[in-house]
Amino acid sequence: MAKIIAVTNQKGGVGKTTTCSSLCGCLSAMNKKVLAIDLDPQGNLSFSLGAETENCYTIYNVFHGGVDLYDTIQHVACCDIAPANIMLSGCELELTNVGREYILREQLHSVADNYDFVIIDTPPALSILTINAYTAANELIIPMMPEILSLQGISQLKETIFAVKKYYNKSLEIRGILLNKYNPRLILTKEVEDLTNLVAEQLDTDVFEQKISSSVVIAEAPAHAKTIIEYAPRSKAAKEYVDLIYEILRMEKPVRTVKKLGRGRPRKDQIAQNELFATSDSETESDDEC
Predict the structure, then answer these.
(1) Is residue 125 predicted with pLDDT exceeding 80?
(2) What residues contact 44, with CB distance under 8 A and at least 6 apart?
(3) Exposure pattern of 143-173 as b/e (b: 16+ CB <10 Å)?
(4) What tens digit of pLDDT does each residue of 132-149 get?
(5) Which of 5, 248, 17 is nearest to 124 (CA)?
(6) What is the pTM of this model?
(7) What is the rounded distance in angstroms from the CA atom of residue 42 to the CA atom of residue 141?
(8) How far is CA 110 from the centre of its chain?
């Protein structure tokens, strides 16, 4: 049975879609079977992963009725995805039937055994789509910027999460709060981080130790329909997301033993070390000749 993770924050522009895309890329690189579900009418996750959104079934057809989730799934480079488009914005008015909060959870029952993880991207609003994501999920990840308005969005999210946990999904867990575009040199960052730790205590969760720094490659990757792991696997951002996935999965991070040499003039100790290796190699060659 797949573990279902919803990435959520009612504040827009905090990196929900980027986080979803990167999680999909990291898990896929670990040979995990991943299904991404785009619940944002803007369809940003679908675009970022290179999915078709127009001439096909989308997640809107699932909520509207008559189409199973299995029929919407597309195969993209790093995972499978149930895409979304602007039609999904009409669900709030169209879904008036009893049990509308359970639509996604019931649909996931039919496909969850085919995957190790399901990653859900939620819209920047507390709508019926968001509640469906919470009702279906095992865990929530809350990305935010180290800014006051972003922190306020989490405070407003708290009541909705507790209500869903009480009435629809008692096993729902908040896995953690993720700080995006993190710059430790800014005083505001430190102040917001302290406040975020207080909010995390109220939500009975933690702030992830791994933070995600600002990086231009994060913004560039969606234009190429690639995850950060595919687009720039050696970048700092990619390494940060890899370390994040180990933290999310509560797995020990692999120890990196290979140190990359600098581009400038080598240090004296490096020169001495290189000479030592060269001497050892020449002695070995001499011994072989003898």
Answers:
(1) yes
(2) 17, 38, 121, 222
(3) bbbbbeebbebbeebeeebeebbeebbeebe
(4) 999 999 999 999 999 888
(5) 17
(6) 0.85
(7) 20
(8) 23
